[in-house]
Amino acid sequence: MASRPLVSNPVEYGNSASFWVEYPNGLVDLTRSHHLLNATNSSAEAATQLAEPPKLKKDQADILVDGERTVRIDAKATVLVVVDMQNFFLHPDLRTHPTGLACVDPLLKVIPALRGLGVKILWVNWGLTDHELKTIPPSLIRGFRKRGSGGFGSELPGSFGRLLMRDAVNSQLYGPLQDLYLQGKEAGTDVWIHKNRMSGLWGYQTALDLYLKENGITTLLFGGVNSDQCVSGTLVDAYFRGYDCILVKDINGTTSPGGYDNVLYNASNSYGFATDTDRLIRANVV
């Protein structure tokens, strides 16, 4: 995958309130904490400040990403968005999803590390109400009536409950992830957010968007299933709304042929950046 060349001089993107600064050494500062100085009337000292990135501050972290870049985040303004790691999509009794199951162990390792940095974990999942069943469009209803399924709200085999309804067993997180969430909920680091479309940010005012705005969140790390459906739908909507988007490669999976590669290409070349859990765990902090 081709990477964009390093900048020859520092560049600031955005406006006075929401901005990034990119430096020739490959650092892209997403913290919105340090504007470039005005070079036209600057002293020699100011010119040096203009060219060199500021020192890492408390609650900030530098993370290596693809494309020979490092992104600097404000941990208090950053969340990990984990999409649809639910029994309905992952449990072997309901489907075969090897790439989704491969995301479980990396999640179990990276989430405690991110909690330690002060990054909140948002579990964004399908969780429908009976009222919402009346408003889902026909294309989406048809899409979930595969393999002879009765679709949203229908009874699944065994004790899995109604398909993707709130509080049903099939809507719970898969395997050890459910306990991981409950531990985080108890500690105040993890939040469960329901969605009723592929994208967790679909619509004028969603639970996810309200949480992000109310908590001053600017940077979103993305994982979950399926990469080219609900994950990418949420990521692209976040990009449109002006959030910083970072795809975490080894906690993303899909069953679609070629779907993952397309998402990765666009996430790292257009929408933002891409990294992996090892680099998140090794993030440079003060």
From TrEMBL:
UniProt KW Hydrolase keyword: yes
MF-aspect GO terms: hydrolase activity
Keywords for the protein's UniProt record, in alphabetical order: Hydrolase
Domain Isochorismatase-like: 78-278
Source organism, top-level taxon: Eukaryota
Annotated SUPFAM superfamilies: Isochorismatase-like hydrolases
Protein name: Isochorismatase-like domain-containing protein
Annotated organism of origin: Amanita thiersii Skay4041
Taxonomic lineage from the root: Eukaryota, Fungi, Dikarya, Basidiomycota, Agaricomycotina
